[in-house]
Amino acid sequence: xxxxxxxxxxxxxxxxxxxxxxxxxxxxxxxxxxxxxxxxxxxxxxxxxxxxxxxxxxxxxxxxxxxxxxxxxxxxxxxxxxxxxxxxxxxxxxxxxxxxxxxxxxxxxxxxxxxxxxxxxxxxxxxxxxxxxxxxxxxxxxxxxxxxxxxxxxxxxxxxxxxxxxxxxxxxxxxxxxxxxxxxxxxxxxxxxxxxxxxxxxxxxxxxxxxxxxxxxxxxxxxxxxxxxxxxxxxxxxxxxxxxxxxxxxxxxxxxxxxxxxxxxxxxxxxxxxxxxxxxxxxxxxxxxxxxxxxxxxxxxxxxxxxxxxxxxxxxxxxxxxxxxxxxxxxxxxxxx
Length: 337
Description:
By secondary structure, this protein is mainly alpha-helical. It has helices spanning about 15-55, 105-110, 130-170, 175-190, 195, 210-220, 225-255, 265-280, 285-295, 325-330, and strands at about 60, 115-120, 125-130.
């Protein structure tokens, strides 16, 4: 009778030290690029909040104390007769230049540089752009450049990690492929499409400062607030969450291909294995524990093969043992002389 025997054997580790080092460097690069995208998204949201919901860009212009309004009062004295001055013979009369209405600087031109007064509104004081407007503009320019470049770098690094992990045949590479797909979508959403393709309507997640000012002014004139919030609040927050998702999926996808060299990381790997043993039970888990330990320390030893199956048959009767003869029986076997 044959007794079936099965054992769970851990797959041997296929990673090599140089492949592990390459994946570790790619993991660091993906982490830095993802954090830069998060920082750019947070900066974009903060600039939007300061521009639309505060008056930090403006300073009130206080009129000078000695300045008083002037008024024209009609004189009670009789008007003096006009004095006619005769021109010299041959002289040419010079007329004063005509006064052109509307030649004064408009509010839009005045608002193009800090420190220039803006015409006073009918129900408020005169305003001028503060130094904070220049700071916000510089922050937006840096945010747009860093955010767009970081998304492209993140996409390229994740795709390179997928190629290395897929070539090494590590388990969990499907998570790295998922991270690569999300990184492509993030890069497509964060590129400045309006600058590259002027006919498109989408500016990208990281818009310029002038676009933000125009959108905010449009809402003040009665435009849609929902569109403004979607472009400058929902999209940056979505880019932040997507970059964190890409980072988590990529690190989980290449974790099995990185050889652990730190004692703390080895202890963490052993703790995870012990938790798995406690959950599944201690029966038939010796080979898995040995395989996990070999993978943690970078050993390439093969897992022990399962024991050979033995055929169990019914026991056969033992042959009779030879017994010792007695003295009488020995005398009976004596030869006659």
